[in-house]
Design goal:
Order of helices and strands of chain B: HHHHEHHHH
Radius of gyration of chain A: 21 Å
Oligomer: heterodimer
Number of strands of chain B: 1
Helix content of chain A: 25-40%
Shape of chain B: elongated
Helix content of chain B: over 70%
Distance between the termini of chain A: 58 Å
Strand content of chain A: 25-35%
Largest interface: A-B, 38 and 57 residues
Distance between the termini of chain B: 47 Å
Strand order of the largest sheet of chain A: 3-4-5-6-13-12-9-8
Largest sheet of chain B: none
Shape of chain A: globular
């Protein structure tokens, strides 16, 4: 065993290059600085909240640049859902009506069978499936971000590529809010489950949410026609 | 060796007080070992980058809970390794470690080997890495931490999420299985 031990001590591996993480790490909002004197708890909580909110604003453009999806704004903080808020799926349509109104955007993913429902909302098309329990949405590209994700401690965010296009996989419960084309503010935030977001070169955003794991979500997104 | 801990302690103190440059210096100082530890666990450079990055972000948030005077590296590695394991689990696949042997072994202080001996040594290094890559995950990780990353037992324990005493026994079993792997290779 000693010989093997000695050989292993001399072993060197050719590791992948270490990326420089400094900029990305510092792009996230800093926590409130430590205070040296004791505070009254209520005042401390209030000031900490104000500090986080102030820190989020200037960091936003840097965060977006780092994350790389133009349509999606990600905030790393605990979600603040509005009780009763639901995703507004919009107007139910038949497959024929959807094709007539939305053209290529009305093409559902292949491999999931016929959707249980098709809805149109704010220029986007949504396909609802029961088995697996999944929602697939296709949004046309826009100049500014229109989906807000709030990722707290209960969820993880992963960058990846789907069919060569930039994507996020968010696993776990997180905040989700949508902004209409003619609106300045986001709608009420709700809690979303596992979600895959893929941004195609055309600007189109594909969103897959539901009871699926990452690989299944990727397969679904890849099967959405171009 | 006295200067570095003092310097790091000072950086931690400043980072706790909101000094971004101080935290940046801590990231620079530890990002390589953090990334490689994550790579050892995920077997994938993109996942390792994400895990290391997220680990540093969480560490920054948790810096107020870090016990002053303790070594920072095991604490950081525990956070990063945990992120890496979460990513590996969410990927739902076995991490396949693809490491090549570096071109040169470390200086041993001995005379340079003959070209034939150097070639054999190179083949042996590649065989060792291949055999490590074939091991089950627990074995691969503990050997990787101790020998490839040269982590201390305490750092390895932090990265594996086990007690320091467990590292010794786990490493011993892993080495036995590595030896068996190499034996199979020899017969093949």
């Amino acid at each position: 065993m000693a010989e093997l031990h000695d050989e292993l001590l001399l072993l060197e591996a050719d590791w992948p290059d270490t990326p420089d993480l400094v900029e990305a790490v510092l792009a996230t909002p800093a926590p409130a600085a430590r205070r040296r004197r004791p505070w009254k708890p209520a005042l401390a909580a209030l000031l900490a909240t104000v500090a986080v909110v102030m820190a989020v604003e200037p960091a936003r453009s840097t965060v977006l640049e780092w994350l790389g999806l133009k349509s999606v704004e990600v905030e790393r903080r605990e979600p603040t859902p509005v009780p009763g808020a639901t995703l507004q799926l919009g107007i139910p349509l038949s497959a024929g009506e959807a094709r007539e109104r939305y053209g290529d955007l009305a093409g559902p993913p292949s491999g999931l069978g016929d959707p249980g429902g098709i809805y149109a909302h704010d220029g986007g098309v949504a396909f609802v499936y029961a088995d697996p329990d999944v929602l697939v949405q296709r949004f046309p590209g826009r100049v500014r971000e229109f989906i807000q994700k709030t990722v707290g401690a209960a969820a993880s965010l992963e960058r990846l590529r789907v069919g060569g296009d930039p994507a996020y996989w968010i696993e776990g419960a997180h905040g989700f809010a949508y902004r209409n084309r003619d609106s300045v503010d986001y709608e009420d935030q709700r809690i979303a489950g596992n979600t895959l977001l893929v941004e195609r070169p055309s600007g189109e955003l594909i969103r897959v949410e539901g009871d699926v794991d990452r690989d299944r979500a990727i397969a679904i997104a890849e099967s959405v026609p171009g | 060796m006295v200067g570095r801990p003092l310097e790091e302690t000072e950086l931690v103190e400043r980072a706790r007080d909101g000094d971004a440059a101080a935290f940046a210096a801590l990231v620079r100082g530890h990002q390589e070992i953090a990334f490689r530890t994550a790579y050892l666990i995920t077997g994938n450079a993109a996942d390792a980058e994400d895990a290391a990055q997220e680990g540093f972000i969480k560490a920054r948030r948790a810096l107020g809970r870090f016990r002053a005077g303790e070594p920072l590296r095991p604490w950081l590695l525990a956070i990063v390794a945990n992120e890496a394991r979460n990513r590996r689990r969410s990927a739902g696949r076995r991490a396949a470690l693809a490491l090549r042997a570096a071109g040169e072994a470390r200086p041993s202080g001995e005379a340079a080997p003959s070209p034939e001996a150097a070639l054999l040594a190179g083949e042996r290094r590649a065989a060792l890495l291949d055999a490590i890559a074939r091991l089950r995950e627990d074995d691969r990780t503990v050997i990787g931490c101790r020998y490839l990353l040269e982590l201390s037992e305490a750092e390895t324990a932090a990265a594996l999420g086990v007690r320091a005493g467990t590292v010794k026994s786990r490493l011993s079993r892993a080495l036995e299985r590595l030896r068996a792997e190499l034996g199979e290779d020899a017969r093949g």
